[in-house]
Structure prediction request, 1467 residues.
Amino acid sequence: MQVDAATLPGDLPERLREPALTEGLVTAGGLDDQVLAFPETRPPKQWYIALAITLSALGIGLGCIGYTFFKGIGAWGNNSPVFWAFDIINFVFWIGIGHAGTLISAILFLFRKRWRNAIARFAEAMTIFAVLCAVIFPLIHVGRPWLAFWLFPYPNQRAIWTNFRSPLLWDVFAVNTYFSVSAMFWYLGLIPDIASMRDRTTSKVRKVIYTALSLGWRGAASHWRHYEKAYLLLAGLATGLVLSVHSVVSFDFATSVVPGWHMTIFPPYFVAGAIFAGFAMVVIVMVVVRESMQLKNLITTRHLEVMNKVILGMACLMGYSYFMEGFTAWYSMNEYLHHGFKNIISGTYGWAGWLTISCNILIPQLLWFRRCRTSYFWMILVAIAVTVGMWFERFVIIVISLHQDFLPSAWRVYKPTVYDFGILLGTFGLFFTLVLIFARVLPVIATTEVKGILPGAQPEHGGHHG
Amino acid sequence: MAEHPIPSPDTQEDLPRFWRTLEERHETPEARRLAEDEFLPAALDPADPPPSGISRRNFLGLVGAATAVAASTACDRPQGKVVPYTRRPSEIIPGVANHYASTFQEGTRLYPVLVKTREGRPIHITGNDEHPGVRGKTSPRALAEIIRLYDPDRLKAPQADGKAVDWSGAQRRLMEGVQAAVKAGQQTLLLSGAVLSPTAKNLLADLKKALPGFLPIAWEPAESESAREGGMAAYGTQVSIRPLLDKARVILSLGADFLQGADPEAIRAFAGRRKPEGQAPPNRLWVLEGPMTLTGSNADHRCPVKPSRLGAIALGLARELVVRKGLALPAGVSIADLPEGRPAEIPAPTWEGLLADLASAKKEALVLCGPEMPAASHAAVHLLNAMLGSEALEIRRQDPLAGRKEIRAALEAMKAGRVGALILWGVNPAYALGDRDAWSAAAAKVPFRAWIGQIPDESAATCQLLLPENHWLESWNDFGPEELSTLQQPAVAPLYDTRQGEDILLGLLRPGGGGDTVPADYHQLVRDRWRRECHPAGSPVPFDRFFEAALHDGVLRGKASPAAAMPLLGSAAVQAAKGAPAGGGDFELVLAPGCHVHDGRYANSGWLQECPDPVTKTTWGNPLSLAVSDARRLGLKDGDVATLSVAGRSLRVPVVLQPGQASGVLSLALGYGRETGSTARGVGVNAFPLLGPDAASPNLRTGAKLESTGKHVELARTQAHFRLDGRDIVRSQTFADLAHGGEHKGHHVELHTLYPDQEFPDHKWGMVIDLNACVGCSGCVLACQSENNIPVVGPEQVAKGREMHWIRIDRYYEGDEENPSGTVHQPMLCQHCDHAPCENVCPVNATNHSPDGLNQMAYNRCVGTRYCANNCPYKVRRFNFLEYTADKTEPESLAYNPEVTVRPRGVMEKCTFCVQRIQDGKVRAKGEDRPLRDGEIVPACAAGCPAEAIVFGDLKDPKSRVSRLAADRRGYKVLEELGARPAITYLADLRNPAQGGHHAG
Prediction:
């Protein structure tokens, strides 16, 4: 674009420039020293303490899973009619947590939102860890887990095919695809950074590992050309998955006949909820990471504020969804839907309904205030509220809908057992264990991407290169 | 074979001398080609090219390889021993069931039954269809006898002083004990249950002759003493009352729960007379009662009243019938003896309607009094029936049964040292007397105590000699009355080293151990009596064939002896009727035998413990029922533990709020709180100690008190919500509506679907359930449990909602919470939907639709995602949350039906419409080369339903009974609007309220 510079105010180029995405003086070399040095230093004592806590939680979870395998699903609180409870709540919850990563790394990439660069790596890693936590549940929740592989359509001599009409089978494909694409995407982004670490490290063992993992990356122009293309393609692929995975998960409910599940709003509602929950988790983890790893100059307050804005937007979408759920129930003139919605606000589990509404809609409204968006206290409060609220939203959808459906004779109250809580705790343990290990062994920030947004990295910034 | 021209004989000169085939001899081109080939391409028909290009050699090669591969995969399968019969028992064909007719005695009641055996072991019980009374139906408790036979707690060999002994030693010990008593001039007390068999009575008479001081006392703790007292007052002797409900147009029940599952005859007659297609006008049931009973839930008019008032109400009715309706009083009764008319607690329209009904029905009217009600109300009811001239009941003299008064007297004799030997046979006084200390003190004074029974109980612990008895399925016996004798025969050889009780007693007739004139065994005794008394003299049929025929049928019709007329002692009856216990105090407490555990004898049966009480829907225990208003007043909720005290005795018991229960009335079941038996121990509370000392009203206690303890327990309840919240799930209408062609107001739904309808080439199985006939007795539940190997899961699992019954009976109240205007029982089972919501959500195709319309479940394929159960609108799918079956070993596993897979943990299951019976019927029909007959296939629930409420058949056959019923005006489908297209049609419940009378008072 040709602009006559003489007609414009002198400082316009400065004003048009995006605010800096980093704080202070960050140089390419300094960035490498700051980020890539972590894996080469000994972790601090706090890290070991944290790891001990998360491993204990994981151990409890594994113990509870072991007990479940030994006893059967009866170890849990599931009953008739609440055949699904914590198992599927946790599954949907963790799949949801994973959504922020893909959204940040893929959709925001395609939209050229450069602020994502600093947080994309961590968010992607969280996606993978969250999906790992999620896939535990479909495996352990079946009555005969040793036969869970029957959910895969593979040729067999019994000539029995899977049932392609079942949304659970769609889940199998959706989650697997999601996991594989996310993992590939993450790994692809890691390659240049791993190559940098290979070049930096002095330890022989690390050298071998990093050499293998960096797949012969030399940083040649052809490498970068292919890399950028592959990254763009995978981003395009992952974008579709952000929308499809949780839509498919919502089909488990939406295509059934259960009042409270059978709703056309579910797919967009689930996707919005997933992004919501995912961002809240990213905020929590990011705050801890930037503080404990002295990354304030790379993950700036502005990053946190933008994420909080996304959370606020999603909270409003959730509010709309909840309202529409109620409106549909009322407008349908269907007594079963009426009853189902009444249960959310006033039944045995009415408290869960109100907890969901408060945590997901009311508390996030705090983020309208800039002060709350930039204050650790408030943003963590909101993020924890959203995490709790979104877990309970799935509780509301699954348990409240199931515990009173069509025939009053079959209604029954559900009570979780200690094993249900233990397994939930265990997945948090697994998630944070993986997060902690990741933070110490791999670059938590995509240095190559951040280098691209450093001042002066982009030729058009600050210059008059027509 | 392709045609090859064979040359005519005139060209024979050139033919070879030796030849193999005609073709070769005549050198057809084909034969030449074959001769050149060393190997024939196909073995059988050279002209026919091998199909699909597989030659015989290749085929054999493939078969060999396939066999090797198949055999190699079989290598690691678990190895089990299969031992074929080397000499097959003549009656047993593996895979083919044998049925034996027999008779089950429970107290003073007899149930003629058919026992289905497979490979020699009994697996299922139904009613004997040769018997005109039961017509193939039986009680839930008789059905559950199967697992009592295989109860692992049964004593397996005799024990003396805690040590195992052999039978000769045990019999000798018994003889010594009794002889010592005889020598010491002391009594030998035989305490037993009711003895109904004529042969056994003869045996007891012989023992009496042979053993000086031998004193048999028959005691049934569950039999009503107040009914006996009332009958004694009215007729001067012990009487038994048998209602003939098919003859009754107007039935008034004063607390009588005659529909409770024990009596299939009553249910069949009652429900049979309510079917709109029947000839006789439908009956009308009026119920005045304190607790809510199953009968009350089936009433056309029900009015909650305090039980202590029932005698006065009955006398008031009698007075009004005389004064206003012109009925005559019996001789010796003056109108002045009868109190004033309508009692205050009964609303005027109910009272007037009832009076008008009774007066118009007269001999078609029947008044029944609950066994637990005081003797006064029994006497008043005898008076009413006599005034009405009711022909709907049969009153007979009954063999005297002891009451608790007589047992107390026996205890005194024991304490005083007058009893030298005590033999307990099938009774458990240490428990059922409700006074353990008194029993132990008295028993300690008896030098010799023997116990004959199956499962060592509280009383066995007080005896030195334990003699294990056969189960009745291992025993011989015979029963009267003369016009319809029934036989009991063993369906299986004794499982353990046990003997029949009668055989043990028979041993006492052989002082020296020698046989001389005494028959070898009781079987011989039964045969001898039949030869003597039943075999018609001069009959051309030899006795052996006569006896075999009787055994085959299980029943023998003899000469009918008309029941002797029983004149009512009018003034005595009135006097007794006025002697009702004074009301007052906080609460009246009704103590009735447990619906399923009876007097506690079935408490060790998991099937019966887990079968929900038809009214409260509780299992595994006896919570105290109380009125909703009383519970509010005391601040009690379901499951709250309260202290119940009456006359200085108290116990802590959880409460259950019972809609319809009269305010101020509590009810508690007897038969729980047992201390022995691995299943029975600690389930519920023992209410026997609360029984009153007065024989005129032991089961009704006034002045009971109830206090909250502040504690709470989880009730093992199968249904916790009883209100319909306006949902169109059960429908009911009146006979009048039906007569006027009134359609039920339930909405009809136009259903559209995008999917093509499934084709059903041969059959389309379906069911019709008549809510009008169903009384809610649970017969179907137990029949299904026995037929389909339904596991028992225990109270904790039931409380968590994990019971496994494939069929359940949903019970809904209508109207007011405290006094519902109606109750509907709805059997709920898999609806075998054509568009089943469960089928399309199973990811592994484990549940799908059969070509004959069954929604079938492939257990082997099920991985247990439970999605199907979530998506089932009827919630009839059952999931094996835990391993309920693998730990079952012999003898319990012997009760399994070999036709039905036992499901492991993690697998979903549900009703199959008894697919094994469908297959059996199809195979049978095919073997006989005929089409299936309508009604030939009967699922277990339908066979077990005394009310004949369940009809099964082929909906594709428009003439079948099920098709005709499904098209009935009353027909509707539950949750039809969901579009699942269930295969079960429900017929709306019918009520028969009196003209102008308000429904349910």
About this structure: Chain B touches chain A through 57 residues (CB under 8 Å).
